[in-house]
Amino acid sequence: MLEFEGVTKRFGSVTALDTCTFSAGPGRLTGFVGPNGAGKTTAMRSVFGLVELDAGTVRWRGAPIGQRERQRFGYMPEERGLYPRMRVRDQLRYLAELCGHGRRQSLRSVDEWLERLGLADRARDRVDTLSHGNQQRVQLIAALVNDPDLLVLDEPFAGLDPIALESMSGLLREVASAGRTVLFSSHQLDLVEDLCEDVVIIDHGRVVRSGDLAQLRAGVPQRFVELRHRGGPPDLTRLSGIVVAESVPGLVRLQVAGDVDLAELVAEVRRSTDLVSFSYRPPSLPELFREAVTA
Ligand SMILES: Nc1ncnc2c1ncn2[C@@H]1O[C@H](COP(=O)(O)OP(=O)(O)OP(=O)(O)O)[C@@H](O)[C@H]1O
Fold first, then answer.
1. pLDDT per residue as tens digits for the range 151-168
2. Coiled coil where (predicted)?
3. Domains of the chain, first to last
C-alpha cells in the first residue's frame, strides 16, 4: 500500500499539493486524474524523493520511503528519461543493472520484456529512431525491468494510437493482477473509468475525491436517464426535479435525483412519445470529475 498523508508542497506562492491524503492499494489500478497543474506530477515525484515536501509523509507498507524501498519501485516520469542516442537493449540493460541486478539477470529480463511488447526486432536500434509509441514502450520496460512492487506512471497513455493504448492497458491490468500497486495519471477519463478500480481526483493541489470508483459513482445523489424515442420529444413538464441535459431528435438525456420515481417517469414519457429504450445510471467518471472539480 502506498499512502500519502497530509502531503503539502509549495513552490513560492503556488501551493502544488495541499494536505493531500490518499492511498493506492496492491492488486489494483489507481487512476490519478485532475486538471492541468493540479499537482499530479508533483505528488508522483514525491514518491521518489524528487521534491522536498513542506509537510506530510509518503509511506510504503506503513513506513517512510528510503533508497532501499525505491529500488523496488518502477517510475515512468513525465519527462521521459531515456538517452536518445543509446541503443534500446543496451540502455535497458544499463538501467536494470543500476537497480542492482546482475548482468545475466538484467539481460534476461530486458529480452523478455522486449519480446512481450513486440520490440525484440528494434533492440539494436537507437532510441531516437523509434516512434513516439515505441519510445513509450521502452520507457515502460525501463520502469518494469526490476520487477517492481510499485509502479508509478506519469501519463503513460499520452500520444498512443488505439492499438498501443490497448496493449498498454492490458499490460497494466496484468501487472496489477500479479499483486502490484499501480498508480498512473491520465487526462483520458473514459480510459481510466474502463481500467481502474480506484481513482484519485485532485484539483488545485487538493484531493477532492478518492477511493473505489464504483462506490464514488454510487455515492453521488444524481442519476442520469437516457431515453430513445420515436416521434416528437417527450413532454416532461408535469414532472419536477428533472433537468434536461441534452435533447436531440430521437434522444433525450436527463439528470434526475437518485430517488426519482422511475415508473412515473416512464409512464409520463410514454403518454407523449413512443419510447424505444431507456437507461438509468449513476454518473460516469467524466461527469463525476466535472462535478468534483467545479464544486
Ligand atoms: N519545479 C517547480 N517550480 C515551480 N512551480 C512548479 C514546479 N513544479 C510544479 N510547479 C507548479 O505546481 C503546480 C502543480 O504542477 P504539476 O506539474 O504537479 O501538475 P500536474 O497535475 O501534473 O499538471 P499536468 O496535468 O498539466 O501535467 C503547477 O502550478 C506548476 O506550475
1. 999 999 988 888 888 888
2. none
3. 2-213 (3.40.50.300), 220-294 (3.30.70)
